[in-house]
Specification:
single chain, mainly alpha, 3 helical TM bundles of succinate and fumarate reductases, 4 helices
């Protein structure tokens, strides 16, 4: 019997540094990540509501945390996560009707999801600050 040796170089699988991610794949991954982040944000909302129901001191502590620069940054991120995930759900609802499944249309919807979530997040925060009079 002769020895079988591999003399040819085996092909390499595309690596993340070589492969260009389509926008639809990126938005799909973001949709899953934002779904996971919503759990954390919902815990923050629950903490705020429990603090409001517990005592004025606990509520003031929660407001101080959320009113700090870091707290506002987290709330801004939570707002974006919430809106981005909602728009992703609307995108999936459109697909459930059988529309927008073509490659170019799906890519346009993915870009609209990203752009829309950013614009709506900024508009929500502008409206929030305008309502507070700041």
């Amino acid at each position: 019997m002769s020895k079988a040796t591999a003399t040819r170089a085996r092909p390499l699988s595309p690596h993340l540094s070589v492969y260009r991610w389509p926008i639809t794949m990126t938005v799909s991954i973001l949709h899953r990540m934002t779904g996971g982040a919503l759990y954390f944000g919902t815990l923050l909302v629950a903490w705020w509501l429990i603090a409001a129901a517990t005592s004025e001191n606990q509520f003031n502590i929660a407001n101080a945390v959320f009113g700090s620069w870091f707290g506002r940054l987290v709330l801004f991120g939570y707002t974006w996560v919430l809106i981005h995930h909602m728009l992703g759900g609307i995108r999936h609802l459109i697909w459930d009707t059988g529309e927008g499944l073509e490659k170019h249309t799906a890519s346009k919807l993915a870009w609209a999801n990203i752009a829309g979530s950013i614009v709506l997040t900024v508009l929500v925060w502008i409206a929030g600050y305008a309502a507070r009079g700041i």
